[in-house]
């Protein structure tokens, strides 16, 4: 019994169907919401709303440098946590990989020591103390 052949493009049929179903579902939900939803335009509804506060002043106001410092510190410590994940995944296999029973553990202790020293430095510099923020540093 010979195998029936069909064009290679037909392999993409499930993908195309999934995309069409997703688009149909999205358009259907937006359309039903438009048909069923309430449409009451008011001054309050049309006003600018940001973080629960009425906008006052210029939108291009200055931010404290401390704001950016905390953002960079978050990224820094977040990346350090990401570096710990692969170590945790292969922790049980580290003795076979390194040839020493505790080498991987001690290496992580050194790494966490550097992280702790960095956190202590940031804490002592007062970067994490928002109560004493006097604007730009």
Automatic annotation (TrEMBL):
Gene Ontology MF term list: NADH dehydrogenase (quinone) (non-electrogenic) activity; NADH dehydrogenase (ubiquinone) activity; quinone binding
Entry keyword annotation includes Phosphoprotein: no
Principal cellular location given in the protein's record: membrane
Keywords carried by this UniProt record: Cell membrane, Membrane, NAD, Quinone, Translocase, Transmembrane, Transmembrane helix, Transport, Ubiquinone
Catalytic activity: a quinone + NADH + 5 H(+)(in) = a quinol + NAD(+) + 4 H(+)(out)
Record's bilayer topology term: Multi-pass membrane protein
Compartment list: Cell membrane; Membrane
EC id: 7.1.1.-
Transmembrane regions listed in the UniProt entry: 12-36, 67-91, 103-123
GO cellular component: NADH dehydrogenase complex; plasma membrane
Pfam families: Oxidored_q4
Organism domain of life: Bacteria
Coiled coil ranges: none
Function: NDH-1 shuttles electrons from NADH, via FMN and iron-sulfur (Fe-S) centers, to quinones in the respiratory chain. The immediate electron acceptor for the enzyme in this species is believed to be ubiquinone. Couples the redox reaction to proton translocation (for every two electrons transferred, four hydrogen ions are translocated across the cytoplasmic membrane), and thus conserves the redox energy in a proton gradient.
Subunit annotation: NDH-1 is composed of 14 different subunits. Subunits NuoA, H, J, K, L, M, N constitute the membrane sector of the complex.
HAMAP family linked to this entry: NDH1_NuoA (MF_01394)
Family: Belongs to the complex I subunit 3 family.
Protein name: NADH-quinone oxidoreductase subunit A
Originating organism: Edaphobacter aggregans
The organism's taxonomic lineage, starting at the top: Bacteria, Pseudomonadati, Acidobacteriota, Terriglobia, Terriglobales
């Amino acid at each position: 019994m010979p195998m029936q052949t069909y064009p290679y493009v037909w392999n993409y049929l499930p993908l195309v169907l999934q995309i069409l179903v997703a688009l149909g579902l999205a358009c259907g939900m937006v359309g039903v919401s438009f048909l069923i939803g309430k449409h009451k335009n008011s001054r309050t509804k049309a006003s600018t709303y940001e973080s629960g506060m009425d906008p006052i002043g210029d939108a291009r106001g200055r931010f404290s440098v401390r704001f950016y410092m905390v953002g960079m510190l978050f990224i820094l410590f977040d990346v350090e946590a990401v570096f710990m994940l692969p170590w945790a995944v292969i922790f049980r296999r580290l003795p076979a990989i390194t040839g020493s029973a505790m080498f991987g553990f001690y290496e992580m202790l050194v790494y966490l020591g550097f992280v702790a020293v960095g956190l202590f430095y940031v804490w002592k510099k007062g970067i994490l103390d928002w109560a004493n923020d006097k604007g730009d540093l």
